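Bug #77: duplicate submission created two jobs. Keeping one. Sequence:
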Amino acid sequence: MRLRDELPVDHPLNRFYRLGAALCGLLLLVFGCLGFAGSLSAFDTAGRQVAGLSTNGLLSTVSVVVGLLLIAAAAVGGNIASSVNITIGVLFVVSGFVHLFLIDRRANVLDFGMSNVVFSFLMGLLIMTFGMYGRVSGGLPHDNPYWQRRHPDRAARETAAALRPGAPRPSIVARPPEI
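Kept job's structure:
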């Protein structure tokens, strides 16, 4: 899969990528700002809670930066938003695994607890889903631009067959079987 595949400007998936990036970015931005509002020190590992997650000033900073990055990707839209969603989603899942092993150790500078690990896994999967939707699937419809990029010969044959005069047009609505 090439992540540089281009979608038409008005393709409906662009809205989905933008919406996913904006919602997840806004959630992270709010979490980071709530952490800053609590006047947390940068490397405090005392277990201060914000919205049910342990945090410190460094985690709040990371949350704000990642949230702003997702919101910026939503503003750009298209394949940029999709690629940023995929990348950040993977980083969240990797972060969950890393911090799972760092819980209760001195190297846990972001003050991750088990709730943070679960949140990291879930948020990563959600963000990746927003980014991969319509790009990664075994059953993409043949009018999907990503399917057409991956199967250019077959797409050209189907387009040529559909343009022939008198060629039957594929029906979108399924008809019930005749009895």
